[in-house]
User: What shape does this take?
Amino acid sequence: MPTTPDLIKIYISSGLECSHLDVQGDGQHFRALIVSPIFIGKKLLQRHQIVYVALGDRMKEEIHALSMKTLTPEEYQENIGYSQDQHG
Assistant: This one.
């Protein structure tokens, strides 16, 4: 079965508590916005490692390219406000 954005969402959300999760991609390259309270107090590398653990061996076998933006719920809310100020 080919890897899809929806399948990656299932993989991530099955192993990680997410308050927001969006995955886009073309079947080869994927982008994920992952918002989780588990990221509070964690550095960027630690956040990515948490996601890699949730994905397990799929990162080696099924998912060839995944870029991630990992935010805490507070950071996500700040980004929404910033985005609305810029576009509203």
